């Protein structure tokens, strides 16, 4: 790696958006891994990836505390097929090795920022049942959720008429999830005292994921023009990733900065635009949201793959913060 990522990161940056030109390219993935290793020398203490935040707890437990195995972390701790990428496996193995002989405060953490959604979206059952059990509530969620397949099949996202997202049951689940979030905060002193701060934050991540899935399914159910519908779906997903990143920074703020790796279109500060299946999509991505909220604390570098020079990142001159 000839390019030094540290030259692109200011002293005020506590969240670096490391944009990927495409997912799964092995050369760029290893370039990203080397960049994070150099940032770890500078005090970065966490790595975040465009993958399911809840599933990623399996990876974090492995890299920080050696819980489970590398194979289990890769098979259970990633969504969107990202556990199959060699560069991700190499990163997880390196993070575990880095942490092995270090005190807890200095260990690197692994986070996901996404949820199990895109062209399909999972059932909210996993997340809502987890929080129900954490709060000790007596709730029959099964009758409202129904069969998971009715949520997770592709038609539930691609065809508004097949979506369960705006049914009476879905609306009731959103109210329940919102009440769960309120209960988490209202009971935080007792809940954290009886469990731990980390356990409370994991419960919050679950309810955030459940609400995000329900919001995504509701957008999928809207009978509007397809360009607008998919723009809203993209905006809903990126809003969830931004919320997760802000929560991660709340957790990691005392330990050090975070590097987040995701597609350029998610992390850039400009408006995101994409042409897909004859549609023109426009929305504010995660980076635009974070830059507006966090200001100078967020830095974005765009990744590219040059056939002659190989992987590179640069701070795009056209990237303007969307400030009031």
Q: In this structure, how is the largest beta sheet organized?
A: 6 strands, mixed
By oligomeric state, this entry counts as: single chain
Number of domains: 2
State the distance separating the first and last CA atoms.
Answer: 38 Å
What structural category arises from helix and sheet content? alpha/beta
Output the strand order for the largest sheet: 3-2-4-1-7-8
- The pLDDT mean sits at 94
Sum up the overall morphology in one term.
Answer: globular
CATH topology of the largest domain: Rossmann fold
> Which series of helices and strands comes N to C?
EHEHHHEHHHHHHHHEHEEHEE
> What is the percent of helical residues?
40-55%
InterPro entries: Emycin_Estase, Hydrolase/PRTase-associated
Protein name: Erythromycin esterase family protein
Organism: Glycomyces buryatensis
What keyword list fits this structure?
single chain; 324 residues; alpha/beta; Rossmann fold; 2 domains; 14 helices; 49% helix; disordered C terminus
Q: Could you characterize the architecture of this molecule?
A:
InterPro entries: Emycin_Estase, Hydrolase/PRTase-associated. The protein has helices spanning 26-41, 56-65, 70-76, 86-99, 125-135, 142-145, 149-152, 155-158, 168-186, 188-194, 197-220, 226-252, 264-267, 286-294, and strands spanning 15-20, 46-52, 109-114, 258-263, 272-276, 279-283, 298-306, 310-314. The two termini are 38 Å apart. It has 14 helices and 8 strands. Strand 7 and strand 8 (310-314) form a beta hairpin.
